[in-house]
Amino acid sequence: MRCEVLAIGTELLLGQIVDTNSSWIGEQLAAAGIDSHYQTKVGDNPGRIVRCLRTALARSDAVICCGGLGPTKDDITREAIAEVLGVPLELDDEVAARIAEMFSSRGRQMSTNNFRQAEVPKGASVISQVRGTAPGLICRLGDRAIYAVPGVPHEMREMITRAVIPDLVSRAGVAATIFSRTLRTWGLAESALDEVLAGRMAALDEVVASGGNAPTIAFLASGIEGIKVRITAKAADQASAAALVEAEEREIRSLLGPAVFGVDEVNMEAAVGALLAERSLTLGVAESLTGGLVGSRLTSVAGASGWFRGSLVVYASEVKRTLLGVAEGPVVSELAALEMAAGAARVLGADIGLSLTGVAGPDEQDGQPVGTVWVGLAGEALGGPSALLLRLGRYAGGAREQVRLIANISALDLLRRRLLEHDRRDG
Amino acid sequence: MRCEVLAIGTELLLGQIVDTNSSWIGEQLAAAGIDSHYQTKVGDNPGRIVRCLRTALARSDAVICCGGLGPTKDDITREAIAEVLGVPLELDDEVAARIAEMFSSRGRQMSTNNFRQAEVPKGASVISQVRGTAPGLICRLGDRAIYAVPGVPHEMREMITRAVIPDLVSRAGVAATIFSRTLRTWGLAESALDEVLAGRMAALDEVVASGGNAPTIAFLASGIEGIKVRITAKAADQASAAALVEAEEREIRSLLGPAVFGVDEVNMEAAVGALLAERSLTLGVAESLTGGLVGSRLTSVAGASGWFRGSLVVYASEVKRTLLGVAEGPVVSELAALEMAAGAARVLGADIGLSLTGVAGPDEQDGQPVGTVWVGLAGEALGGPSALLLRLGRYAGGAREQVRLIANISALDLLRRRLLEHDRRDG
Predict the structure, then answer these.
(1) Which of A2, A224, A265, B21 is 20 to 30 Å apart from A87, CA to CA?
(2) B291/A291 Cβ within 8 A
(3) Is the pLDDT of residue A174 over 70?
């Protein structure tokens, strides 16, 4: 089963908006075992959209159109699909009623244009809209399929997950449902993960070779999001597939231990926040090279105010001394990191202090090469102070932003591991 | 002249990397007056790359290939182009010598694979590499052209600007060179900009209608990067085109006044940093809803350590009081913003204090709706304290991140305008 992605919108070609939708859909297709050989961007031009759809259907089994379902005259995805299918557009009464109801419940005036969103190519199935007003579409053309979803990312994601991937998987001819879960890891290189899991993967292959059903395991290196380990299972029903995945998750967790920090959409910040919230602990940060990045990302987590006290961005060395009590001497050092962590906890009134001090580049500092970062931790809740030296010079070739991002995640990972270790010592 | 973009790399299709290169190239093409109707992503598969190249050349005048020029066996862009051109690959001695020299000057061991990067399709011109080891390519096929640039963003950008756009513009058959400059604005809506500049744009149209040469003006709404006003001129030589653009820039600046904050790649943070550096002033920040974003973005500016002292991320209300001396009472208020700004300057030992306190959402706070943000400023260098109320509720429909980003830029814009106003009062 091959499925292409067609992102529609002149603003994508002009670079006013980066097409992140296709990347996300590509990731979902790969996870579901569906090949995606081509992804195309095209503008709001009827002839060119039609040509792209025909090209896609000539070389793939399905195409997902993303965008162009809005109410304005630029939104012509519906018309283009109808032309390719050779059918007229018809008003779907149910969709029209739902749109009218949404406007009236919000006390908003509805323009007649909005009814354009209720037009569907004759014979197409509607993917009902949970949010927004534009429904998605599932259209058949012989043994091929055209899907259409809105370009608004959260509406698109919801419809792809709920309707498009399941339809593709069922059309793939396997009388089975698919279930997958992603374990997110930090601290092991891809080659190391591969080594640790090689035996397990061989065992699963053997089960399949001998005619049994077993999940598959795939790695996805995702930069500062860590390396994702995706477990996917097919079974006759959802519950059986989920059971296979859950059993496999236990196996993999026992092999990877604390390298697994989260599941699916849980990033490192959210994982750390959850651990702090469970323990009723608060966190204060002191950061220099990251310039506020640690605080900024932590406060992106919903409910951060429950455990995050603040962050002291001490960029000038003198401020490290006056505000945090860091002693004279080099500020990129184990001692400075420990003093900064203790100072952050004290000044911010937090249970735990976390600090980062280092050299983001472009130039070295105090004889320390770019990428040298000390992370400090303080707090009785962790059983006392500790520090870790990161050497991120290998990332320094690119932007200094990369050093900052990796330092941020590595520091949070250290805090996460210390929290877990302390549980074990207590337990 | 039509030019497509072909981004090459399986990791792009799998969503492991978002293809930002095509968007950037699309923006450059648009600025140069070259149409880009299609942009395609394809994996590291020889047959499919060749098919994409043939499709592109059948419907466009040129195609830019991005990626697949590295030294590994997955990097097959060179081979695919040679196949489409119907020519063999040949070792370019000059490129090979440069690669060998680069390795030896860095004291690194060179693998024979690296010489693959010196292979070029027979008859192609080489775009010499300033950074990195992979040269770019300019290839002719009748009246069509294939360009190849590396996928590493900074290498790609440098080659597109230096070699590809000028070649495309000259091939466009206009015996002229093009020069463009982007004025970056904040604080005026696109409709307001349009109104202010309508007279000027009509005047330029008249010049052209009567057979004269005049620059064109285009708007590009770029989210938190502001609205860009691009001035483009064509003339017989670069100096004449630049002179036209510069004269027009003066006209537009006189109409837009302080709404123009920067030129080309200068973002708001860099603009504020430059103003501070010129005046030998230092900045300290106190931020709550932005969680460290303001500090993080300011420290992305090269040389920030010259004028940035630090940022106090006071997320917990209590820390606002203990650390910054904010009095009891609502923390999203004019008074709290002013106290925070004064506190930031005092605690961080900065000439100027900037503060942000507000409601990022999802829930309202102290009866204030989501999107309510107070910005405070303190410092004799600004002639004393001032504050501004932002109502960003219209952005709250999306992510809370959008409220934080807009608040950040708006706060820096306020500081920028106050610095400029104070100059005028002094002058």
Answers:
(1) A2
(2) no
(3) no
Residue of B246, B273, B245, B268 lying closest to B258 (CA atoms): B268
Nearest CA of chain B to the CA of A249: how many Å? 22
Helix axes B77-85, B46-59, angle to 10 degrees: 50
> B168-177: per-residue pLDDT in tens?
988 876 556 7
Closest residue of chain B to A294, computed from CA coordinates = B292
| Span B291-316, average pLDDT | 95
What is the rounded distance in angstroms from the CA atom of residue B259 to the CA atom of residue B264?
Answer: 15
- pLDDT, residue B82, reads 97
Which chain B residues are closer than 8 Å to A17 by Cβ?
23
Q: Inter-chain contact B315–A308, Cβ cutoff 8 Å?
A: yes
Say if residue A420's pLDDT is above 90: yes
Q: Which residue of B has its CA nearest to A17?
A: B23
CB B71 within 8 A of CB B116: yes
pLDDT per position as a tens digit, B188-238: 887 888 889 999 999 999 999 999 999 988 887 777 888 889 898 888 888
Kindly report the number of other CB atoms within 10 A of residue B182's CB atom.
20
Indicate the pLDDT class of residue A426, thresholds 50, 70 and 90: low
Query: For residue A30, which residues of chain B lie inside 8 Å, CB to CB?
Result: 13-15
CA dihedral sign, ordered B332, B337, B343, B345 = positive
pTM of the model: 0.77
Report CB contact under 8 Å: B310, A316: yes
CATH number of this structure's domain A268-426, picked from the four choices 2.30.30.60, 1.20.1250.20, 3.40.50.300, 3.90.950.20: 3.90.950.20
As given in the structure block, the two tokens for residue A194 are 């591969």
E strand or H helix at B8: strand B3-8
Q: Which CATH class is domain A177-263?
A: alpha beta
Q: Which chain A positions have a beta carbon within 8 Å of B43's beta carbon?
A: 37
CB nearest A316 (choices: B41, B309, B315):
B309
Domain ranges of chain A: 3-171, 177-263, 268-426
pLDDT at site A189: 82
Who's near B139: CB < 8 A, 6+ residues apart?
B81, B85, B121, B123, B124, B125, B145, B146, B147, B148
Q: What is the C-alpha separation between B385 and B341, in angstroms, rounded?
A: 8
Q: Which residue of B has its CA nearest to A228?
A: B16
Write the pLDDT tens digit of every residue in B59-71.
Answer: 999 999 999 998 8
Asked whether residue A222 carries a pLDDT value surpassing 90, the answer given is no
Does the distance separating the beta carbons of A290 and B291 come in below 8 Å? Answer: no
| Chain A residues with beta carbon closer than 8 angstroms to that of B16 | 27, 220-222
Which of B42, B309, B347 is nearest residue A38 as measured by Cβ atoms? Answer: B42
User: How high is the pLDDT of residue A295?
Assistant: 97
Interchain proximity B304–A312, CB inside 8 Å: no
Q: Which CATH class is domain B3-171?
A: alpha beta
Q: Name which residue leads in pLDDT, A43 or A169.
A: A43
Q: Check CB contact under 8 Å for B308 and A322.
A: no
Q: Inter-chain contact B16–A37, Cβ cutoff 8 Å?
A: no
Mutation target among B5, B8, B13, B44 for the A interface, most CBs of A within 10 A: B13
ipTM: 0.76
- Mean local confidence (pLDDT), A111-127: 89
Instruction: Provide the sign of the torsion angle of the four alpha carbons B7, B8, B12, B14, taken in this order.
Output: positive
Residue A38 pLDDT exceeds 90:
yes
The answer to whether B209 and B201 are in contact (CB under 8 A) is no
Interchain contact, B318 vs A349, CB within 8 Å: yes
| Residue B116 scores a pLDDT above 70 | yes
Count the alpha carbons within 13 Å of B191 in the hemisphere toward its beta carbon.
Answer: 0
Are B14 and A30 an interchain contact pair (Cβ–Cβ within 8 Å)?
yes
Give the mean model confidence (pLDDT) for residues B34-52.
Answer: 95
